[in-house]
């Protein structure tokens, strides 16, 4: 059950299976976005703490360590044990997530259940990682081995804290890597709780390390550390570029980046307007619009445009905004004051540039960071709200005339994370799916992210893939071995 008074047990840095203070002794506050008030003081890690965490992770990765000597099936069993502990403490994790992030408790519980499934998916893959035998020329036996990269740094965002942790821990641990993770400074609570669960599950000392702190300090130390062999990051394009540069200039570490989006959702003239409006509503307002794949560019055919705008407005006005722990709430606060003001700024710019504010656009209540679900009509491609990632509850409804036109306009962006189309015409669905430049494409649905399918973006939406077997490959090296034989066999 939801617990708005959930005890916060873990506030320190987790290194080598122990909770410790920051070397500097510094702390920072994590805030409840529903109230704007402090939840807890968290140990503030920086370079010195990252160095200690990397040393622990390196020791855990030496060839003779318990972790490296462990059977792959045993690694899978540990991941499964961790998932059962998450299941046991699901209410605690969901309550912490709602307190720290502001998402409604049912949504937080949905994330917890999804994270459990992610851990179990990778638990099942741990002993399925294998190489190939290769029919090489001459008297040689040639084969490949898949080996863990080593110590990996992982930097996760604040919008889906527990889900993003599971997306990164799952494949890294299944592959046999050791981890130094930095959670977002806005939302460290579930990562620290998961650190405690990893110890309870039985992961050896140093395999999992969690260093809360700020991006330029703790995050910068991870991305530039010469002993970290891969860095995985989810967040903004701006920070992704900084991390990629640091990875290149330090030790040319591997990089996977899951970055921003300005995703198009195309509503065709043959679509059922009520059904299409509901898909679009969920696609943009999920998680208070704080979603990298949010379909914030809603392209609607001119023949049904006015009717669609009317239905979209009705849905947005009916959306219940408020306390994440209150029954019936489906829309919580924005993450913090900075994001709150940024979104309000975009709403103001949208009106100044001539978009029609259909509904919303105002703040809600006298405390916390609540903003009404907002809809703009008569949006053109050159407007700021149609080009930049707002990361808030703002839907831009754009008129189009033909599918070819919609495809060209959908692709006219530096992003390419996701896209969708609503149509009853299979030819339109396939044409769009094949032509649109996006890593995930959904037909007559949206947000259909599954553990088994790779997730990532084209263009500036990222490098590499999360989830599926593709994510696992990102934590592995491929080694070719050739053995000379007395004769060709």
Automatic annotation (TrEMBL):
Keyword vocabulary terms for this entry: Oxidoreductase
Keyword Oxidoreductase: yes
GO molecular function, one term: oxidoreductase activity, acting on the aldehyde or oxo group of donors, NAD or NADP as acceptor
Domain Aldehyde dehydrogenase: 20-481
Keyword Oxidoreductase in record: yes
A Pfam family recorded for this sequence: Aldedh
Active site: 258
Family: Belongs to the aldehyde dehydrogenase family.
PANTHER family, sorted: ALDEHYDE DEHYDROGENASE-RELATED
UniProt protein name: Aldehyde dehydrogenase domain-containing protein
Organism for this UniProt entry: Anopheles farauti
